[in-house]
Protein: Type IV pilus modification protein PilV
Organism: Thiothrix lacustris
Amino acid sequence: MTRPQYHFQQGVGLIEILVTIVILSVGLLGIVSMQTQALKNNNSALEHSIAVMQSYSITEAMLIARTAAIEGDFNLAIDEEPTTAIISEPQNSSEHQQKNLFAQTSLIEWRTSLRALLGETATGSVACNEEKCNIVVQWDDGRATAGKSVQNIHVDIHL
Protein backbone atom coordinates (compact mmCIF):
# COMPACT_ATOMS: atom_id res chain seq x y z
CA MET A 1 0.00 0.00 0.00
CA THR A 2 1.25 3.36 -0.92
CA ARG A 3 0.91 6.33 1.25
CA PRO A 4 -0.65 9.48 -0.09
CA GLN A 5 1.89 12.24 -0.41
CA TYR A 6 0.96 15.34 1.50
CA HIS A 7 2.93 18.48 0.95
CA PHE A 8 3.29 20.27 4.25
CA GLN A 9 5.03 23.57 4.33
CA GLN A 10 8.33 23.46 6.08
CA GLY A 11 10.13 26.68 6.99
CA VAL A 12 9.18 30.27 6.20
CA GLY A 13 8.17 31.50 2.79
CA LEU A 14 9.85 34.38 0.96
CA ILE A 15 6.72 36.55 1.00
CA GLU A 16 6.40 36.21 4.78
CA ILE A 17 10.00 37.35 5.21
CA LEU A 18 9.45 40.37 2.96
CA VAL A 19 6.29 41.40 4.84
CA THR A 20 8.14 41.12 8.15
CA ILE A 21 11.02 43.28 6.87
CA VAL A 22 8.60 45.96 5.63
CA ILE A 23 6.77 46.08 8.95
CA LEU A 24 10.02 46.31 10.90
CA SER A 25 11.34 49.03 8.58
CA VAL A 26 8.23 51.18 9.02
CA GLY A 27 8.42 50.75 12.79
CA LEU A 28 12.11 51.70 12.91
CA LEU A 29 11.49 54.78 10.73
CA GLY A 30 8.74 55.83 13.16
CA ILE A 31 11.10 55.46 16.10
CA VAL A 32 13.79 57.51 14.34
CA SER A 33 11.24 60.23 13.55
CA MET A 34 10.10 60.39 17.18
CA GLN A 35 13.71 60.61 18.35
CA THR A 36 14.40 63.49 15.96
CA GLN A 37 11.36 65.40 17.22
CA ALA A 38 12.36 64.75 20.82
CA LEU A 39 15.83 66.18 20.19
CA LYS A 40 14.35 69.30 18.56
CA ASN A 41 11.97 69.85 21.45
CA ASN A 42 14.73 69.22 23.99
CA ASN A 43 16.91 71.84 22.27
CA SER A 44 14.01 74.31 22.30
CA ALA A 45 13.46 73.72 26.03
CA LEU A 46 17.18 74.27 26.66
CA GLU A 47 17.04 77.59 24.81
CA HIS A 48 14.03 78.68 26.90
CA SER A 49 15.95 77.84 30.07
CA ILE A 50 18.98 79.79 28.86
CA ALA A 51 16.77 82.79 28.07
CA VAL A 52 15.30 82.76 31.58
CA MET A 53 18.77 82.48 33.15
CA GLN A 54 20.01 85.37 31.01
CA SER A 55 17.08 87.54 32.09
CA TYR A 56 18.04 86.80 35.70
CA SER A 57 21.63 87.69 34.84
CA ILE A 58 20.77 91.26 33.83
CA THR A 59 18.37 91.46 36.79
CA GLU A 60 21.28 90.77 39.15
CA ALA A 61 23.34 93.53 37.52
CA MET A 62 20.40 95.89 37.90
CA LEU A 63 20.08 95.00 41.58
CA ILE A 64 23.77 95.73 42.08
CA ALA A 65 23.30 99.22 40.61
CA ARG A 66 19.72 99.72 41.76
CA THR A 67 19.78 103.52 41.66
CA ALA A 68 21.17 103.47 38.11
CA ALA A 69 18.40 101.10 37.07
CA ILE A 70 15.74 103.31 38.67
CA GLU A 71 17.22 106.34 36.88
CA GLY A 72 16.92 104.50 33.54
CA ASP A 73 20.60 103.82 32.87
CA PHE A 74 19.80 100.19 32.02
CA ASN A 75 16.99 101.06 29.58
CA LEU A 76 17.67 99.55 26.18
CA ALA A 77 15.34 98.98 23.22
CA ILE A 78 15.23 95.60 21.51
CA ASP A 79 16.89 96.93 18.33
CA GLU A 80 19.24 99.40 20.03
CA GLU A 81 22.93 98.63 20.57
CA PRO A 82 24.39 99.60 23.96
CA THR A 83 27.37 101.94 23.90
CA THR A 84 29.81 102.95 26.60
CA ALA A 85 30.83 106.51 27.03
CA ILE A 86 34.59 106.67 27.38
CA ILE A 87 35.54 108.13 30.73
CA SER A 88 39.14 109.23 30.55
CA GLU A 89 39.71 109.27 34.31
CA PRO A 90 37.20 107.03 36.10
CA GLN A 91 38.50 107.99 39.53
CA ASN A 92 37.70 111.68 38.87
CA SER A 93 34.32 111.06 37.22
CA SER A 94 31.06 111.50 39.03
CA GLU A 95 29.39 108.59 40.77
CA HIS A 96 26.49 108.75 38.29
CA GLN A 97 28.90 108.43 35.34
CA GLN A 98 30.51 105.39 36.92
CA LYS A 99 27.09 103.77 37.51
CA ASN A 100 26.11 104.56 33.92
CA LEU A 101 29.37 102.99 32.70
CA PHE A 102 28.63 99.89 34.79
CA ALA A 103 25.10 99.73 33.35
CA GLN A 104 26.28 100.06 29.76
CA THR A 105 29.09 97.56 30.25
CA SER A 106 26.64 95.10 31.83
CA LEU A 107 24.26 95.52 28.88
CA ILE A 108 27.06 94.93 26.35
CA GLU A 109 28.19 91.77 28.15
CA TRP A 110 24.56 90.61 28.47
CA ARG A 111 23.88 91.04 24.76
CA THR A 112 27.18 89.32 23.90
CA SER A 113 26.30 86.30 26.04
CA LEU A 114 22.78 86.19 24.56
CA ARG A 115 24.24 85.97 21.07
CA ALA A 116 26.82 83.41 22.11
CA LEU A 117 24.28 81.13 23.79
CA LEU A 118 21.13 81.64 21.68
CA GLY A 119 22.49 82.54 18.24
CA GLU A 120 23.43 85.66 16.35
CA THR A 121 19.85 86.90 16.09
CA ALA A 122 19.30 86.84 19.86
CA THR A 123 18.73 90.18 21.51
CA GLY A 124 17.22 91.64 24.64
CA SER A 125 15.67 94.79 26.00
CA VAL A 126 15.24 96.45 29.38
CA ALA A 127 12.59 99.05 30.16
CA CYS A 128 12.46 100.50 33.66
CA ASN A 129 9.81 102.89 34.87
CA GLU A 130 11.02 103.90 38.30
CA GLU A 131 11.15 100.64 40.31
CA LYS A 132 9.21 98.48 37.82
CA CYS A 133 11.27 96.92 35.05
CA ASN A 134 10.40 94.72 32.09
CA ILE A 135 13.11 92.51 30.63
CA VAL A 136 12.64 90.84 27.25
CA VAL A 137 14.88 88.16 25.73
CA GLN A 138 14.21 87.39 22.05
CA TRP A 139 15.77 84.69 19.87
CA ASP A 140 15.09 82.58 16.78
CA ASP A 141 13.76 79.13 17.62
CA GLY A 142 13.08 78.04 14.04
CA ARG A 143 14.17 74.47 14.67
CA ALA A 144 11.41 73.94 17.22
CA THR A 145 8.43 71.92 16.11
CA ALA A 146 5.59 74.04 17.46
CA GLY A 147 4.90 77.74 17.56
CA LYS A 148 6.58 80.68 15.90
CA SER A 149 10.24 80.81 15.09
CA VAL A 150 10.79 84.06 17.06
CA GLN A 151 10.46 83.40 20.78
CA ASN A 152 10.24 85.93 23.61
CA ILE A 153 10.66 85.64 27.34
CA HIS A 154 9.20 88.55 29.35
CA VAL A 155 10.25 89.05 32.95
CA ASP A 156 8.76 91.79 35.12
CA ILE A 157 10.66 92.75 38.26
CA HIS A 158 10.24 95.24 41.06
CA LEU A 159 13.55 96.70 42.20
